[in-house]
Every structure is written in structure tokens, then in C-alpha cells.
Amino acid sequence: MKKSIFIITTVLSLIQISCKSSQPFSDSSDMNKTLYKSCLNIIYLNPKYQFSDISITNGKLNKINDTSYSVVIDTSYTTKLVFKHQSKILKEINFRVKSMPEPELLFWSKANIDLNNITLNEFKEVRSISTVLKDFTVDCIFNMIHLTVIRIRDGEEKIIELENPTNIDLDRIKFSAQKNDIYIFKNIKIKIQQTNRIIDGKEITIYLK
Fold it and tell me: Which residues contact 145 (CB under 8 A, 6 or more apart)?
């Protein structure tokens, strides 16, 4: 399991937006403001501002307390936050919606290993395997819930389906590995804990020298 933390904060006259983050947005254009699909986005409101209703298009908005709401978006590329008071629209704020990156497998070892040029001994020395969201620092906790491993040896395939894979599963795979084996890691799926959304990962193939 891999935790990754992202914190974004937008300072507006009306709200602050954050995935628990400290990286500021530019307020020069509404489209500079970004939310992310599948993860939990947190919107912090200015407690001094008076409004009676808040809604969002193309997403699900839930109140956390008087000054914060959670937003989950699955399909849209844009969304709009609408503030009203006594049925009158006070402000509309547009957001760009980005997808989270494909989860990638990360092989942990004492030494730096190149998966494009890995030896049998290096593979056997891998201590653990996990998933990461490369170049993404979002405050979301996720678990790898599925992994398919295909071993090709002397032209024959062996398929291993792993639910909630652990390092014990990795140990069984690497200890049976032989020189010139080909391993395909595919059907990688992670589950975002806060939203229960499932994201497919990036397939990887390694050739043991």
C-alpha cells in the first residue's frame, strides 16, 4: 500500500479550495483552478461570507461542516461551483477537472534497479512491490486490490491472479523465477479509500537476464 499526499489551496474572495494542500492557484482565470477525478477534493469556505445554498455541476457535493465541503467528480472535464443566497446567484466558479495518473508498480530494493535491464539476482533481491501515482501528490490513501502476473518460460504461460496482493505473493513469484523468464504485470487496480473509486494501472513487462 502506498500513501501519497497532495495539498492545493486556492484563495478567492469567496472560497479556498484544497485537497489539503499548500500550493497556491493563480486567480487570473477560473480555468486555472483544478479538481481531480476519483479522489476526494475538499472545498473550504470563507466563514465571513453569507450564502444559503451551494451546488456543483457534474459532481457530488457533501457538507462536512459549516466551512468545508467534499467534492467527488467522475466523468466531467469541467465543473462549476454555484453560490446562492435567497435564490439569487452570488458567484459561479469554473474548474478544470483532471484525471489522476495511471498507477504504476514500484519495485523496492536495496540497490537501484532498471526494470528495462534487470537480472535474475536483482529481481530476487526485490523486497516489496507497491503502486505509486507518479508526479501526483494528492492526499488520497489507496490500496492495490488486484494484480495479474503472467510468467512466460520456454514459450509457456503461467497466469497468476492476485486479489489484494501482498509481499508474500511477491516472494512466491521471485523465488520461483529463472533466468530468461518474462514477467508481465497487468490488470493493476487500486481503490481510493475515501471515495471507493477504482483506477486501472499501467502494464509493465520485465525480462530477466
Answer: 163, 164, 189, 190, 191, 198
3-class DSSP state for residue 75? coil
Which H/E stretch holds residue 64? strand 60-65
Q: Are 199 and 116 in contact (CB under 8 A)?
A: no
Q: Are 131 and 104 in contact (CB under 8 A)?
A: yes
At 62-86, the pLDDT tens digits run: 999 888 888 899 887 888 888 888 8
- Name the pTM for this structure: 0.75
Residue appearing with cell numbers 483552478: 33
Select from 40, 27, 17, 10 the least CA-distant residue to 139. 40
User: How far is residue 140's CA from residue 73's CA, in Å, rounded to a whole number?
Assistant: 14
Alpha carbon of residue 66 to chain centroid: 28
pLDDT in tens, 2-22: 433 333 333 333 444 444 432
Cα separation, 110 vs 66, whole angstroms? 48
DSSP type of residue 32: G
Q: Would you place residue 173 in the very low, low, confident or very high pLDDT band (cuts 50, 70, 90)?
A: very high
Return the SS3 of 206: strand
Gyration radius of the chain's alpha carbons: 22
Cα 34 to Cα 138: distance, rounded to the nearest angstrom: 12
Sheet holding 8-11, edge to edge: 23-24, 8-11, 15-21, 41-45, 68-72, 60-65
C-alpha cell at 204: 509493465
